Amino acid sequence: MKKILPFLFLFALPLFSNAETADDILTKVLTKLNSVKDYKVSATIKANIPMIKILPNEATIYFKQKDKFKVESKGITILPKQGFTDINNFLAKKNYIAVINDTITTGGVKTYLMSVIPNSAGGEMILAKLWIDPERSVIMKSQITTKSNGTVTTSYTYGDQVKYGLPSKMVFEIDIKKFKLPKSVASDINKSSAEKKKKIGNKGTITITLTDYQVNKGLNDSIFK
Amino acid sequence: MLLKNTWNEFIKILSKPRSYLGVGALTLLIGIIIFAMKADGKSIISFVTASFEQTLTFNGHILNGYLIAFIILQMLIVHVPLLVALVTGDLIAGEAAMGTIRMLATKPISRTNIVLSKFIAGAAYTLFIIIWMGFLALFVSTALFGTGDVIVLNSDGLVILPEADVLWRFGAGFCVAFLSLLTVSSLSICLSAFAENSIGPIVATMSVIILFTIIGSLDVTVFDSIKPYLFTTHMVSWRSFFEDPVPWSTIRQSVIILVAHNVVLVAIAIVRFNKKDITS
Questions:
Q1: Yes or no, beta carbons of B149 and A150 under 8 Å apart
Q2: What CATH number did the domain enclosing A188 receive?
Q3: Residues 49-108 of B with CB under 8 A from A
């Protein structure tokens, strides 16, 4: 047995050296995302938030590297404050420690669950949990905790733009515990105290379906003004 | 004879400077609100969206004419009753104070019809006030700020109504607002039948509105049983048209109560005026 062990170790060594680290996986993801210089996409935004009643709306989303982002819509649209460009910007700074926690199957896809912690305490981000598909180098799910906006969980579905790491559908799960109505409005004289104390949920979702991507076609800076 | 007398009453309203005071005050107030919105509208809007904006962003043309019309209606519906009472509270008591009521009573028209003609003339003035308010709030605001979806904040949260679904709500809202103000007009005419000078009914009308509004806003269970019967509770029911879904049963109930108030108040005024011993 003692004679076999060194051989086993020698055979196993290449396997260990080929195993990707969290940084390698994130670099691949970032490379894919950075291949997108700009894009324009049509979005259907559907918000299901307990304290907000809004019909599904159409919008056009514009993005240009590094962080130019604009939503154009005829009507009023609601989007989560974080989730579109935050991960890209955070990962691009390379000022983090990433650790693979587990291997989890999400939506039938085998993913690595990673915890990404910023090195400095000065930024907005506290912790990012990323579920990454190592085969396609895309983020399948993210859970970002920030100082001021709480935790936002986002699930991603990919279509024909997977080669750029651009999703075809995003589902944001939002914590609405912080939502408070101004007191002058909350004291609606037409509603009894029992009606006002109606229990509402703590979570809301915003589903964005993205179609007709126009990637790297060149967007003028004037669009973002 | 009723219509002829109503026309005469309406001319009397038009001939009094105080009738223009209300229209002027309304124009000035709406002008100030529109100016304030033009100058610093975004910070005013952030009052509505502030608690949501920690997590969400609102995109689109939020500060638009429809939203400003809604804000104007909400701000002024509390104050317009004073402008209405200023004119309608004077309709009977003013004649008593000037000594013209005896001459009016000698005309070949019943006392009931005199009160009814004053009620109709008061209603016409109230309608004019509402139409003027609607014109300034809706048309001037949309001309200056354009149109768009409307964000409405109520006790349940935010309701965002699409642009195409807004105009009928304003139309219906203005109709219910007119009914609310008509109740104020009927109340002041009713009180006017009991008074010999016009200040009394105007002050009494406003006192009743303030008292009922305070009772309505107090979150005390002992008042819960009387709140649904106070006309002030239903004066804000125009706002129900901006909820989704529209609470039709609540609106129907409000309309019934406001109409009932009008009928009862005018009936009291008729009875009182018929029994009135006119000595001035």
A1: no
A2: 2.50.20
A3: 51-62
